[in-house]
């Protein structure tokens, strides 16, 4: 099963990239669009393909892979299928950082201020979660810690909105809270990609340690896993991934919950295999959702984060129900 | 050959020592039963020895780097945690973690060690079953198999046979004794003094964080020690079938 899974996920992601490139209101033919993308023939269609659709598809892949990977890594570390960066306040805190950068004008003055602030927000949130949830990370404390951090980040974001100096800033802040990939440029790709690559480089090698953690912290430590180092890499990796994703796409929740949940049975529940699988699966899921928002309500600019929440929240309820049944 | 030596190992919780200046040396070929009432410090002694708790004094294990230590000593914690529904074979293979370089796939030698451990713990036929779907006793045996697959000279196990049925309790202790005869050393905490007396080559009796007695089973399970530490009386005989120990009643 696992052997066919990775080629399957790669093919699915590649096919969805293609569909994403060919989906949009401009109404060019597929052959025309792709040849324009590759050769630059036809000024209008080249502009649309290279400046609008290519960044959008690339960002969907980057953001989806980062969020899927972060979810799988957090779940593996906390040994809890309910852990998800959006749900436990990491995305909210990253969005708060971005909002503060926008609100104070730092984002306008200094190009990297927004992603760096988003990153800082994510780091603080992950540290607080690990502190509050404790080393064993029981479901209840984890969710409670997540609620507390989400609430605080939400309140501070509302405060920024409340004190916003002008309607343009307000509109921009509202946008961070919804999450979208519309109207992005290649600049956004170059802004996010280095941070995400750093996050992937930190998270992907954690597989063996996360596998050992299946037996609990004590047994993992006795198996030679350096837990303090693993925790530090996890915090920095998740923060880099979620911070960068939020900086360019706003808060998009539930990717890190839905994707590992769907893929876990297909990888024999092994955290080490789930990491790369969830990265690919996350890319496919965000591509799919981003295609869906363009097809479902093409005129109304349905936000990606809103769609993901509508799909993801019922699954979260289902997971809570399942966890309760397993505990009983 | 000495495989574990502790020199005045002390572990404190707050100011109060939970393990108080424990000095102990375990050699190859020994199956050491660590006995004592609840809260005597058995678990803390083993965790301190492994370097999982901050401690004073010296333990030969904490002198080693983490991976080298994991190749020398396996640890079977009391809490039987299996976080994900991985297959029994995958779980037992986790014991091979210290033997694999970063990114290295399991070799035939690793698979052979896993197969041996599965056979020793009477788990043949369970290989592909999700470990979380097994009964509590079966999960305990899977976790023991994981520690055995680690293939270390020293095994520390915290109440490994608690919750097993009588047949598997005896079989597990016999398997431990066979490992000791083959040149390994094991330190096993347990509450079943009958099994301890029968199978262990040596008993270490802990009382209030201190090592109260240390020696062959018959020398440790004396009426005086049992009264002072457990507040029980017991009957101990050596017959043609080996040592037979039966606790009788609680003393006033």
Detailed description of the structure:
Chain A has 328 residues and is mainly α. Chain A has a single domain, classed as ABC transporter involved in vitamin B12 uptake, BtuC, CATH 1.10.3470. Chain A contains 15 helices and no strands. Chain A has helices at 2-21, 30-39, 43-78, 90-103, 106-109, 113-133, 139-162, 167-178, 186-203, 207-212, 217-222, 227-249, 255-263, 271-296, 304-327. The radius of gyration of chain A is 20 Å and the shape is globular. Chain B has 252 residues and is α/β, with parallel strands linked by helices. Chain B has a domain at 2-79 and 153-250: 3-Layer(aba) Sandwich (Rossmann fold), CATH 3.40.50.300. Helices cover 33% and strands 30% of the residues of chain B. In chain B, the strands form 3 sheets. A 6-stranded mixed beta sheet of chain B has the order 5-6-7-3-8-9, sandwiched between helices. Chain B has a 3-stranded antiparallel beta sheet with strand order 2-1-4, covered by helices on one side. A two-stranded antiparallel ribbon of chain B has the order 10-11. The mean pLDDT of chain B is 94. Classes of the chains: A mainly alpha (328), B alpha/beta (252).
SSE blueprint:
The complex is a heterodimer of chains A (328) and B (252).
Chain A: H1 2-21, H2 30-39, H3 43-78, H4 90-103, H5 106-109, H6 113-133, H7 139-162, H8 167-178, H9 186-203, H10 207-212, H11 217-222, H12 227-249, H13 255-263, H14 271-296, H15 304-327
Helix pairs in contact in A: 1-3, 1-14, 2-3, 3-9, 3-12, 3-13, 3-14, 4-6, 4-7, 4-8, 4-12, 6-7, 6-12, 7-8, 9-12, 13-14
Chain B: E1 2-13, E2 16-27, E3 31-35, H1 42-50, E4 56-59, H2 66-72, E5 73-76, H3 88-93, H4 108-120, H5 136-149, E6 154-158, H6 166-181, E7 185-189, H7 193-199, E8 202-207, E9 210-215, H8 217-220, H9 223-230, E10 232-239, E11 242-250
Parallel strand pairs in B: 3-7, 3-8, 5-6, 6-7
Antiparallel strand pairs in B: 1-2, 1-4, 8-9, 10-11
Helix pairs in contact in B: 4-5
């Amino acid at each position: 099963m696992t052997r066919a899974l990775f080629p399957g996920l790669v093919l699915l992601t590649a096919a969805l990239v293609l569909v994403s490139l060919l989906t949009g209101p401009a109404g060019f033919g597929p052959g025309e669009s792709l040849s324009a993308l590759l050769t630059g023939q036809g000024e209008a269609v080249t502009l649309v393909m290279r400046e609008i659709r290519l960044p959008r598809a690339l960002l969907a892949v980057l953001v989806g892979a980062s969020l899927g990977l972060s979810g799988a890594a957090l779940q593996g570390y906390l040994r809890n299928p309910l852990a998800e960066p959006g749900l436990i306040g990491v995305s909210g805190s990253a969005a708060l950082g971005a909002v503060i950068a926008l609100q104070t004008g730092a984002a306008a003055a200094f190009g990297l201020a927004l992603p760096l602030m988003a990153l800082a927000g994510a780091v603080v949130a992950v540290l607080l979660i690990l502190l509050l949830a404790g080393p064993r990370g029981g479901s209840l404390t984890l969710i409670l810690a997540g609620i507390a951090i989400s609430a605080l980040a939400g309140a501070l974001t509302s405060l920024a909105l409340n004190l916003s100096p002008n309607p343009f800033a307000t509109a921009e802040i509202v946008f961070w809270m919804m999450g979208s990939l519309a109207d992005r440029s290649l600049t956004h790709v170059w802004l996010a990609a280095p941070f995400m690559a750093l996050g992937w480089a930190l998270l992907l090698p954690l597989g063996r340690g996360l596998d050992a953690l299946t037996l609990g912290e004590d047994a993992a430590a006795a198996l030679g896993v350096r837990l303090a180092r693993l925790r530090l890499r996890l915090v920095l990796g998740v923060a880099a991934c979620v911070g960068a994703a939020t900086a360019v796409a706003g808060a998009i929740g539930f990717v890190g919950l839905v994707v590992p949940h769907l893929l876990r049975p297909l990888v024999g529940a092994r955290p080490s295999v789930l990491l790369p699988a969830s990265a690919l699966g996350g890319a496919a899921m965000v591509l799919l959702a981003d295609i869906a928002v363009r097809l479902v309500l093409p005129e109304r600019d349905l936000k990606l984060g809103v769609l993901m929440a509508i799909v993801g929240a019922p699954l979260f309820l289902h997971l809570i129900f399942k966890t309760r049944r397993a505990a009983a | 050959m000495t495989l574990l030596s502790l020199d005045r190992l002390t572990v404190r919780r707050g100011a109060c020592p939970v393990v108080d200046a424990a000095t102990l040396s375990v050699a190859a070929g020994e199956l050491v039963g660590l006995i004592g009432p609840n809260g005597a410090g058995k678990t803390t002694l083993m965790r301190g020895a492994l370097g999982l708790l901050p401690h004073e004094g010296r333990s030969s294990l904490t002198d080693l780097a983490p991976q080298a230590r994991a190749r020398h000593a396996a640890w079977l914690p009391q809490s039987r945690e299996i976080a994900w529904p991985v297959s029994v074979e995958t779980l037992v293979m986790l014991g091979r973690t210290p033997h694999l370089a970063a990114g290295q796939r399991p070799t035939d030698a690793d698979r052979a060690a896993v197969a041996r451990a599965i056979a020793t713990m009477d788990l043949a036929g369970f290989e592909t079953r999700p470990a979380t779907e097994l009964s509590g006793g079966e999960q305990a045996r899977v976790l023991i198999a994981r520690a055995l697959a680690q293939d270390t000279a020293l095994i520390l196990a915290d109440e490994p046979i608690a919750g097993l049925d009588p047949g598997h309790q005896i079989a597990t202790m016999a398997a431990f004794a066979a490992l000791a005869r083959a040149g390994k050393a094991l330190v096993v905490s347990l509450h079943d003094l009958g099994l301890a007396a029968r199978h262990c080559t040596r008993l270490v009796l802990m009382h209030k964080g201190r090592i109260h007695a240390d020696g062959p089973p018959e020398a440790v399970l004396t009426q005086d020690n049992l009264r002072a530490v457990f507040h029980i009386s017991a009957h101990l005989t050596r017959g043609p079938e080996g040592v037979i120990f039966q606790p009788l009643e609680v003393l006033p």
